[in-house]
Amino acid sequence: MVVQLNEKGLLDWNDWAEALSMELHRPEAASDGSDYYECWLAALEKLLASKGIVSELQVGSVAEAWRRAAHATPHGSPILLENDPGPGGNTQ
Amino acid sequence: MAHGHDHDHDNDMDPMTARVRALETLLCEKGLIDPAAIDVIVDTYQNKVGPRNGARVVARAWSDPEFCDWLKRDATAAIASMGFAGRQGEHMKAVFNTPQEHNLVVCTLCSCYPWSVLGLPPVWYKSPPYRSRAVMEPRSVLTEFGAHLPEDVRIRVWDSTAELRYLVVPMRPEGTDAMTQEQLADLVTRDSMIGTAFAEAPR
After folding, report:
1. Among the four A3, A23, B70, B133, which has the fewest Cβ within 10 Å?
2. Does residue B32 form part of some domain?
């Protein structure tokens, strides 16, 4: 995902290295690197938000839709966002 | 399905996964990324590149003095001539191990890594203990990797950046004079090109 954004000129490689490094060096970051992926996600979200590409609020609401879709999907079937019953759905 | 409604925790999506999917969804909607292209990228680095490109570069440097010279002078161009160019246009520098000096690569800032020649970085390369200890106590780190260096061999640690990535050219193992480049490449492990191991001895 990051490589593609970089190729489209939306994300500068130096900015990315800096953002990722900042997340990895936060005092609350795990010392064993087990939260590398969390840091990666936080860095990407912040960078996209600061460039006005995708806001954290948008990510939050679509993420909720994905979780509702996951709940509404029968075990063993691929989870599709179309399966989201909506905020009023009977899951959670 | 055998699992009924009372087992709905089975299809719980953890918040991390949901946010990553959400990002993908939003970026796709905006036409900024193409999920099929992401799969191609991951597949390329996981299966096609791996560390094999780097191994071919090293094997050629061992067998072809002219190429070896070129690699020393301008690794970016020498490596690109074999068709392995960096996605981000980053520069490459090849650092050569000698009987007096061993090279070790780290990225203290994050996890910059020469993808074009080594594929995806190993998990430990991205871990904070490796990133800090490789600089502070490289000899102990090497010992933990099982790479025992004589006391009189100097260790040089290279810190990768977004612009400059390093490829360690390990020493050519003894008893390999008659080997072809292809056979030699099999002795060059990923770790030997990061500097946490030596090239393997021929069987």
Report:
1. B133
2. yes
Dist. CA B29–CA A55, nearest whole Å: 14
Q: What angle do CA A77, A80, A82 make, to 5 degrees?
A: 130
Q: Is B82 on the interface with A (CB under 8 A)?
A: no
For chain B, the domain total comes to 2
B6 in contact with A, Cβ within 8 Å: no
Side chain identity, residue B174: E
| A6-30 pLDDT, tens digit each | 777 777 777 888 888 888 777 777 7
Q: What is the pLDDT of residue B86?
A: 66
Predicted local distance difference test score (pLDDT) of residue B8? 42
Residues B77 and B171 in one domain: yes
For chain B, strand residue ranges (E) read 91-96, 101-106, 154-159, 164-169
Same-domain status, B109 and B35 = no
List CB contacts of B194: < 8 A, sequence separation 6 or more: B104, B105, B118, B125, B168
